[in-house]
Amino acid sequence: MSRYADLILELINQSKEHMTAEQLFLELKKTEPKVVQATVYNNLNALYQNGLIRKLSIENSPDRYDKIRKHDHLVCRKCGELSDINLEDLTKNLENQLKEEILSYDLKVFYLCKKCREE
Amino acid sequence: MSRYADLILELINQSKEHMTAEQLFLELKKTEPKVVQATVYNNLNALYQNGLIRKLSIENSPDRYDKIRKHDHLVCRKCGELSDINLEDLTKNLENQLKEEILSYDLKVFYLCKKCREE
DNA sequence: CTAAATGCAAACTATTTGCAACGAT
DNA sequence: ATCGTTGCAAATAGTTTGCATTTAG
After folding, report:
1. Of B65, B81, B74, B69, which is closest to residue B115 (Cα–Cα)?
2. Is CATH 1.10.10.10 what the domain over B3-66 is classified as, yes or no?
3. Which helix (H) or strand (E) holds A111?
């Protein structure tokens, strides 16, 4: 595991946010002023392909990176605000329904956050 | 609803595929040779914002468009093959767990398709 | 000494935007 | 005449790639 990969992984694991490549780049640059975007992207891809981080594709916004530990996401349909939620695990349930072994699943729940509901 | 919006909506509703903007553009061009990509994108956005179609963001591939009727997706983690599945509806369950009203949810189940498992 | 990781710039893909022309009320 | 829709070209955002240089084992 390379120096930057290490730091990036740590940033993702420490953070409560779901950061974009750009945000991670800016964050990393604070302590590593020489780093460039491409390196961040390359490391993110490596981490993703090695199953060390999750990648979240959200409509109309750049990909976000997240820790691997299983949890689900609550997304405001209007402002796009994204937060973590812990719902009961569906793996067994899904496997029963599908009669297939599954690797993982990704559950996004859309709602209107308080702010957007009030407008 | 504009002429093209209409045709695009029909294409999406008729098709069993989950087409990208590019594929829809090519398909539409068969009968409407003058249409350009930007128009397709603009119409897709309008349809999406009016809640007439779904938009699927998949890691490492362009967005795909889908009919609105509720169903879930099975995605091969390796080759990216995407198919529809009908799982039991989780809305009530999720609302109970979250104690929040939800608008919808998006469930992607990752697995290895037969082809990829055999390699 | 060698291989892997990095910096840099350029390329590429997906998508959006500004604007002029067109078409249907 | 007016307003929304289209075609076109250029712009932009996000991401990837090729290659020369640096770094670590």
Report:
1. B81
2. yes
3. strand A104-111
Fold exhibited by the domain B72-118: Dna Ligase; domain 1 (3.30.1490)
Residue ranges, comma separated, of all CATH 3.30.1490.190 domains in chain A are 72-118
Digit-by-digit pLDDT tens for chain A (119 residues) are 799 999 999 999 999 889 999 999 999 999 999 999 999 999 999 999 988 999 999 888 999 999 998 899 998 887 888 999 999 999 999 999 999 999 899 999 999 888 888 76
B1's tokens? 């609803």
User: How far does the CA of A30 sit from the C1' of C18, in Å?
Assistant: 37
pTM passes above 0.70: yes
For residue B102, list chain A residues with Cβ-Cβ distance below 8 A: 109-111
**Does the beta-carbon distance from A109 to B98 stay under 8 Å?**
yes
Rounded Cα distance, A77 and A82, in Å: 10
